[in-house]
């Protein structure tokens, strides 16, 4: 059974999708449903989600921006966008960002079921491939505990891994960094790296990355020659709206308010 998350700002839509689709029969479990993208992001940071079903228009960040954010957290997550907007440009952008498919409202439940049947086959194939890799990696020759970057109980090794990860983030915070990409750089499993962040630093990978970005943004705001939306891009945010909201969530002030306080 694969975990599904439903995101739509309309409760009637969320309830309808849960009520009129037999998800269990399709092989999916509705792990949660949310009215905002930011709530969904927080859930995905902390829990395993295989598929995200989301609307485009929402009160905080839109569905296209949500696709980009969740792909940074988990590049393997499958995203289906369901929207009242049938514009080709939206569909094209959704696929470019990594969405699995783009459906229009009102939802054609037959088409929706077909899409999820395809996703289920894809997820099953990926699970099989991961199992094969796991068998290879856990053989005596490839046991991570025997490698120089071991994932065993060696606190020194764990400390070195997390320091390397932090160093990379500190130097590349303005680039796209996913947990999977970072785990490849420090040569450890992404799940293990995620646990290291929580255990050694006390916060999730995405929280650490966000705090580093906002700290740099605060520093850059002191330079009055820089425009706020330029600063957003300089610290890794393509969406000014998302940058603005994240900055306020962390500092309690908008970027403009923070800058005005410095004057």
Question: Features of this protein?
Answer:
alpha/beta, Arc Repressor Mutant, subunit A, 58% helix, 263 residues, 10% strand, Rossmann fold, 3 domains, five-stranded parallel β-sheet
Rg from alpha-carbon coordinates: 20 Å
CATH class of the largest domain: Alpha Beta
What is the tally of beta strands?
Answer: 5
Please provide the ordered H/E string of secondary-structure elements.
Answer: EHHEHEHEHEHHHHHHHH
- Biggest sheet, strands in spatial order? 2-1-3-4-5
Secondary structure class reads alpha/beta
Shape: globular
**What's the rounded overall pLDDT mean?**
83
Notes on the protein architecture:
The protein folds into three domains: 2-129, Rossmann fold (3-Layer(aba) Sandwich), CATH 3.40.50.2300; 143-202; 208-262, Arc Repressor Mutant, subunit A (Orthogonal Bundle), CATH 1.10.10.60. Helices cover 58% and strands 10% of the residues. The protein is built from 13 helices and five strands. The chain has helices at residues 11-20, 23-26, 37-46, 63-73, 88-96, 109-137, 155-172, 179-185, 190-201, 205-220, 228-234, 240-251, 255-262; strands spanning 2-7, 28-34, 51-54, 78-83, 101-104. Strands 2-1-3-4-5 form a five-stranded parallel β-sheet, with helices on both faces. α5 (88-96) links the parallel β4 (78-83) and β5. The protein is globular. The termini are far apart.
Please provide a brief summary of the model.
By secondary structure, this protein is an alpha/beta fold. 58% of the residues lie in helices and 10% in strands. The protein has 13 helices and five strands.
């Amino acid at each position: 059974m694969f975990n599904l998350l439903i995101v739509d700002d309309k409760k009637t839509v969320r309830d309808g999708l849960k009520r009129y689709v037999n998800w269990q029969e399709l092989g999916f479990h509705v792990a949660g449903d949310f009215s905002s993208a930011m709530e969904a992001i927080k859930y995905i940071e902390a829990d395993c989600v295989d598929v995200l079903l989301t609307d485009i228009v929402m009160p905080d960040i839109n569905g296209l921006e949500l696709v980009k954010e969740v792909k940074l957290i988990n590049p393997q997550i499958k995203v289906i966008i369901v929207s009242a907007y049938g514009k080709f440009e939206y569909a094209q952008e959704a696929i470019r960002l990594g969405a699995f498919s783009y459906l229009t409202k009102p939802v054609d439940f037959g088409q929706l079921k077909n899409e999820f049947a395809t996703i289920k086959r894809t997820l099953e194939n990926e699970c099989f491939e991961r199992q094969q890799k796991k068998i290879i990696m856990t053989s005596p020759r490839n046991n991570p505990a025997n490698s120089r970057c071991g994932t065993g109980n060696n606190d020194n090794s764990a400390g070195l891994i997390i320091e390397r990860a932090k160093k990379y983030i500190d130097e590349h915070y303005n680039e796209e960094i996913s947990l999977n990409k970072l785990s490849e750089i420090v040569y450890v499993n992404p799940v293990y790296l995620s646990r290291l962040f929580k255990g050694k630093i006390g916060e999730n990978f995405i929280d650490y990355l966000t705090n580093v970005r906002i700290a740099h943004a605060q520093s850059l705001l002191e330079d009055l020659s820089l425009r706020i939306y330029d600063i957003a891009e300089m610290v890794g945010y393509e969406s000014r709206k998302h940058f603005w909201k994240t900055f306020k969530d962390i500092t309690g002030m908008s970027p403009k308010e923070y800058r005005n306080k410095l004057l």
